[in-house]
Amino acid sequence: MCIWTGFILVTRLGGTGVLTSWDIAALRFGVGASIAVFFLPRILLPPFKVIALFSLFGGIGYAIVVYAAFRMTPAAHASVLLPGALPFLTAIIALIAVDSFSRGPKLTHTQILGDLLLLCGSSSWAVFTLLLSRYPIRPLAATVATTLGSAVVYLPIWWLFLPSTLGQAPVSEIAVQAIYQGVVVVFLAMLLYTFAVSRLGSQTVALLMAFVPVVSALAAVPILGEPLSLLTLTGLAAVTAGAILGARESHETEPGLECK
User: CA-based angle 66:67:72, to the nearest 5?
Assistant: First the structure.
């Protein structure tokens, strides 16, 4: 949960910097793949179909929409719509209910688009979470397969066709995004996440992730200077309460579940 909280803050910081969202995704997969290659001789990769699915939903599909969204919408929105929406999207992936509010702070068209992209990213990660349960392979193999599969497809496309400001960005900005996105998030966090899903189950892990919003949204106020509106605070309270109730229900209905 700490890594996910940092992911929201660091990625939003990158969204306000010089690097494009395509560059950040390239750093994520490029650095992550350079680490993943080291483990190739030590693992047995899953079938091509599984690698493709993992890379689509847990790699490219998630990264490109989320990094684009962070250029349009504040960290507090991401806190609610990424980890906050994850348990509900995991439980009912085919149904997304969007409530309309007649009152409250007015959102710009850019922020609305960013919020929709965040929901797409959360949906993609929810599918990836369910795929981890559907294809129960070793966490390290799942991490390496997702990282390398994403890198092989995305990096050539980025290099040849996508806009980039990598050459104009400060070294410090590149280093922060490369280390956090490519090492901490794409490799360490994914390894821990796949391990948690294999031991606790997809729905339990998704519920636990819903505790991230409050910490990341509150931290964004002093770190990024992004204020919280009453509507955002209401959303944070709602997803946190839902996570607590969901976790209690999951514990009551699965008494034999143990972490080994």
Answer: 90
Integer CA distances (angstroms), 82 to 40, 222, 229, in order: 31, 21, 18
Residue whose C-alpha is closest to residue 181's, from 71, 68, 70, 25: 25
What 3-state class would DSSP assign to 53? helix
Residue with tokens 């991490």: 143
Separation between Cα atoms, residue 61 and residue 117, nearest integer Å: 11
> What is the C-alpha to C-alpha distance for residues 118 and 7, in angstroms, rounded to an integer?
14
Confidence of residue 133 (pLDDT cuts 50, 70, 90): confident
Highest mean pLDDT: which range of 14-23, 116-125, 214-223, 237-246:
14-23
Neighbours of 216 (CB within 10 A): 26
User: Does the structure show a pLDDT above 90 at 206?
Assistant: no
Please tell me the pTM assigned to this model.
0.73
Q: Which residue, among 124, 216, 173, has the nearest Cα to 23 in the 3D structure?
A: 173
CA distance 227 to 152: 39
For residues 156 and 116, what is the distance between their CA atoms, to the nearest angstrom? 27
Mean per-residue pLDDT for 99-110?
Answer: 54
Q: Is the pLDDT of residue 247 over 70?
A: no
